[in-house]
Structures are given as C-alpha cells and as structure tokens.
Amino acid sequence: MSQALDTLRHEHDAILSTLKILRCMAERALQGNADAGDIAALLGFLQEFVDKCHHGKEEGLLFPALQRVGLAHQGELVGELIAEHEQGRALVGALRQASTPALDAEAFAAAAEAYAVFLERHIDKENDVLFPQGPSRRSARTSWRHCSRPSLTSSCRSSGKAGTKSCTTCCTAGRPTMPAEG
C-alpha cells in the first residue's frame, strides 16, 4: 500500500485518539474540572495538526494526485470531503467560542461531541471509501510518488505555525501529543 496513504491512515489513528481526549475534557468541563490551558492546547492541536497539517496534505497533495491519475469519478467525493474539512473548521470554531473568554461547559461539551461524531464519520469515509480506490489502480502508482512520506512531512513542517513541527512526532508514536508552543 502507498506510503502516503499509510501516513494519512496513521494520522487518522492519532486524530481518533485525540477525539477521546476531547470527549474526556468535555466530561471534565461538565463536572467543573476543566483546565483552560489543556483545552487551549487541544484546540491548538486540532487547528494546527488536524486542519492545517493533515487536511492540508489531503487537499494539497492527495486530492490533486487522484485527479492526475484520472479518478474523475471521485470528483464528487473529493468535493464532499473538502466541504467536510470546511465544516470541521466551523466546528472547531464552535469549540473555541464555547471555551473563550470563559468556558461554557454545556456548549463546549455539545460542540465537542458534535465535532467528534462528525470527524469519526469523515475519517471512516476517507479510510473506507476514498483510500482503497487510490493505490489499487496500477496507473496511480507513479503519481503517488508525489505523495511520498517526505512530501507529506515537509508540507507539515513548512507551514511555520506553532505546533506544526510536532505533528510528525505525534503520529510516529501512534498517539497524539499536544503541540509545543513557539
């Protein structure tokens, strides 16, 4: 299987682990035990890693590679996935709004669950519908070289935003870590 897809699937696993952390934070918020610093760090991770790093790879490398190899029939699915990335950004915005300047525990918990359910479905769609179609086509193999592991890693590191440097590290361990500040 393509190294590019292996990398993206590995990142999906890390993101799913992060959703467990988000749900735990939401439960703590409802119990009155939320830590504002932890919430801010997790929201930074969602914005920097999930959106800018991971979704950036899909939109900037994977989806164009699929189009180059003639998977035009996937255009509708790719368009749907890009629209879902936008929807995910809006849901992270709702999480941020519910947590700043003061935490609204109920709104945060509702937004956290909505985001987690949404992203789980989105990841399932990519893993189970889109990804199996890419590397199975022999003609796609040469084009997948554009989505090699170094390309994926450098696209993450090149964004220059706080926290993105940690995205490669968080995924190699198979579990999420909070992004480093600075």
From TrEMBL:
Q: Which CDD domains match?
A: Hr-like
Task: Give a Pfam family name.
Answer: Hemerythrin
This protein's GO cellular component annotations are:
plasma membrane
All residue ranges annotated as the Hemerythrin-like domain in the record: 4-133
InterPro entries found in the cross-reference section = Hemerythrin-like
Q: Which PANTHER family match?
A: BLL2471 PROTEIN-RELATED, HEMERYTHRIN-LIKE DOMAIN-CONTAINING PROTEIN
Give the protein's recorded name: Hemerythrin-like domain-containing protein
Q: Which organism is it from?
A: Azotobacter chroococcum NCIMB 8003
